[in-house]
Amino acid sequence: MNVAYLPSPSSGVWQIGPFPLRAYALAIMLGVVAAVVIGERRWVARGGTRGVVTDVATIAVPFGIVGARIYHVVTSPQIYLDDPVRALYVWQGGLGIPGGIAGGFLAAYVVLRRRGLSRSAFADSVAPGVVVAQAIGRLGNWFNSELFGRPTTLPWGLTIDPDNPDAVPGALAYHPTFLYELLWNLGVAALVVWADRRWKLGGGRVFALYLAAYAVGRGWIEALRIDEANTLFGLRLNDYVMAVVFVAAVTFLWLRRGVGREEPVEAPDDHPDDDGDSAESRPDQDPADQDPADHQTGQEPAATTRLEQTP
Where are the domains of the chain? Predict the structure, then answer.
């Protein structure tokens, strides 16, 4: 019986004149666009200003890519011992999602804190978009013919070039783990959106739910993969990382149970303007808007005091 297995792309690079267009990079870029569009709509729906997610993404995405690459290199250093420069070849694949989430999260946290925006509300707003981006990014693994699973005879098996370094002699098809994770991630996105609408989650619980659900899926998918990876007591390092993420996320959900949505998500505009003047020093301010402490101490507003001292 001949089975029409899922084919692997013949190439992951298209030449546009002198410039190569790499499917892996294109998948990442499309994922980022999807994450920003989804996150922007959810942030505005929560009362935020349009454009904030785009602004934060310009900082968080590069840090996320760096974090993802560092995670990959640290957890698989033997690949780069003979040629350390290869660690810089991001376009060849090798981005660890846990490192990407951590790098992007830390960068976004700093930006949001400096701008006086709610970090938890922002995380909850972008969570579905982030996991959709991860789903789209898995298409890059398909084009690179990497991170596939063990051999299978299932009709949706993935064909792999026999010369692939991870190919098993005699195997006709392999578990398409990229497809499993793509579909799982889309399911996670639907889950967190539904849960958020159902219970009006706040306080970072949407983001925690995303992490917990993603960790569960990554755990069983990781068990199918046959690419080279460091192990400890028979389990891949990613298994331990996902276990920690799952426990931490579930603990966070339990500790923050009952927390509703943040109001407001953006701090009042009481910070100094670009020219260094604050709202309290504006000459056209109504006296009623002065600091209540001035009235409680019997002091007159600063502008009035200066007029009385003028000869």
Answer: 13-255
Show Cβ contacts of residue 22 under 8 Å, excluding neighbours closer than 6 positions: 12, 13, 91
Per-residue pLDDT of the chain (311 residues; tens, 9 = 90+): 556 799 999 999 999 999 999 999 999 999 999 999 999 999 999 999 999 999 999 999 999 999 999 999 988 888 888 888 988 888 777 889 999 999 999 999 999 999 999 999 999 999 999 999 999 999 999 999 999 999 999 999 999 999 999 999 999 999 999 999 999 999 999 999 999 999 999 999 999 999 999 999 999 999 999 998 888 899 999 999 999 999 999 999 999 998 989 989 997 764 444 433 333 333 444 444 444 444 444 444 444 444 344 44
Do the beta carbons of residue 243 and residue 219 sit within 8 Å?
yes
Whether 35 contacts 129, CB under 8 Å? yes
Q: What is the pTM of this model?
A: 0.83
